[in-house]
Each structure stands twice: as C-alpha cells, then as structure tokens.
Amino acid sequence: MRGLDPRIHDFLAFNINSGDHTSMKGGWVYIITNKPEGTLYVGVTSDLARRAWEHREGTVEGFSKKHDLKRLVWAEHHDTIEAAMQREKNIKHWRRGWKIRLVQENNSGWDDLYDQLI
Description:
- This protein is of the alpha+beta class.
- Helix content is about 30%, strand content about 20%.
- A hairpin with a 6-residue loop joins strand 1 and strand 2.
- The chain is globular.
C-alpha cells in the first residue's frame, strides 16, 4: 500500500540536539520502548517533553503503562498537528522491522532521548 513503506516518505527526523525544540509549534510523532528492540509504541503529541514525562511517570493508563514503556528513542517534528497525526497513522501500519530500522537509523544505541528534552 502506498504511503506505508518508509522508503516512500521523504522525511527529516528532528534531531533533538539541534536547537530550541521546546517552543516549536505543530506536532510530534514519537516512539517509546522498554528496551532496545523491545515493545514499541508510536504516539503523537503537541508537547513532546510533557508527553515523554507522562510516559516515564506512568501518569496515564493504557498500553505504554501496561508494558512499562518509558524510553523515548525517536521523535519527528511536523509543522502541523494534523501532519503529525497522519504520519503517526502511517507508521502504526508499518511492519515492525521498518519501525526498528527507523529508530536504528537515527538512534543506533537506542538511547533514551528524554534527558535531551529538558
């Protein structure tokens, strides 16, 4: 299906180290996990730092809390929340291997990026 293969998308994953991301408008697509190549959760938010904190603290019931997913391993900024939501939907339909490759291409050590947000 067109739009689901990661090779089709010409995207630029936002490098968290590249600047002041806290004041950015729009939306974020992100992936959290419990360990390298562990359970993956793809989410979307308008406030990445707040949402990552919620996952880490387990303040919201759901899949990520049930599976103890706290490690932010990938994030991508979009100019609008609608664009971020569409990207999230596309990635959620990807095969697991594609999601793993997406993380590894941008964060080969599966490092937790949360500390770089604050």
